[in-house]
Amino acid sequence: MIKIITDSSSNITPEESKALGIGLMPLTISFGTQEFRDGIDISCEEFYEKMQTGGEFPHTSQLTEEQVEGSVMEAFENGADEVLLLPLASALSGSYERCKTVAERHDRVYAHDCCCTTVMLKLCVLHALKMANAGAKVHEIIDALKELRPKLKIYACLDTLENLRKGGRLSTVTAIIGSVLKIKPVITFSVDGKVEMIGKQFGMNKAIGSVVSAVDKNKIDYDYPVYLIYTQNDKNSDALAGKLGIQYTEKGNICPVIGTHIGVDAAGIVYAEK
Q1: Which listed site, 48, 67, 188, 264, has its alpha carbon 20 to 30 Å from 231?
Q2: pLDDT of 174-197, one tens digit each?
Q3: Counting beta carbons within 10 angstroms of the beta carbon of residue 57, is it exposed (0 to 12), middle (13 to 18) or buried (19 or more)?
Q4: Domain match, 13 and 110 both
Q5: CB contact at 8 A, 54 and 31
């Protein structure tokens, strides 16, 4: 049996992980001196509420080697023959390096960089699980994930620049000017997992329009899940769904690890192309 293990940035909940038999390692979120295990000590809804009202700007911590080692040992104790670790993108966190270090210490433990996070990572994890349950070998699963990754698309628009400013990714002056002008960034992930800005629009309505324009509806592969994503409030994702006019599998609140950087009221879509 191959045990698939991921982290909470995948947007897989503890309840889903138990039902599916997926190992789930929670990332740590800090508000000042207070620490919370993502999805265990604090929910998405509680996180966004605290981020807006708590005064402290949140910070996230990568996985520790001890945490990864513990998850691997637990998998073997529960009957796993092999373990495949699928953490968030190495371009976004040092968690993959922790997983890789642990994998190198053990036979039958493997780490793969899916070069993505949030529900895009969830899509990869579910695909890996489906293959494992069908009897595929670890190297076949990793090869399939490498082939799948360039087909995965994410487009999202942000409603606020405040989190980028607080996180040091945008100057205060630029953030103030952007807020006054109601500039809304439109972003995607590169194939190697880096966040890229593909446009700026004046107002959320135009930003949502840019996301719609970026999506080639004729190329959506419905053999894979199609996810609508949002942060805290789903009003903008509902507006996006209305303009896209497509079927989607699930609508989900983006995990705190990513929400820390993009703020509330963001909206986007994740899907695979044919």
Answers
A1: 67
A2: 555 566 567 888 888 888 888 788
A3: middle
A4: yes
A5: yes
Angle among Cα 264, 270, 271 to the nearest 5 degrees reads 170
pTM for the whole thing? 0.90
Residue where one domain finishes, among candidates 150, 183, 205: 150
Residue 231, both tokens: 């942060």
Residues 114 and 50 in one domain: yes
Strand segments, DSSP code E, in 51-169 are 59-61, 82-86, 109-111, 152-157
Cβ-based neighbours of 137, under 8 Å, separated by 6 or more: none
- Answer yes or no: do 126 and 209 share one domain: no
CA–CA separation, 105 and 102 (whole Å): 5
Evaluate whether 121 touches 85 at the Cβ level (below 8 Å). no
CA 238 to chain centre: 20
- pLDDT tens digits for 47-93? 999 988 877 888 888 999 999 999 999 999 999 999 999 999 998 88
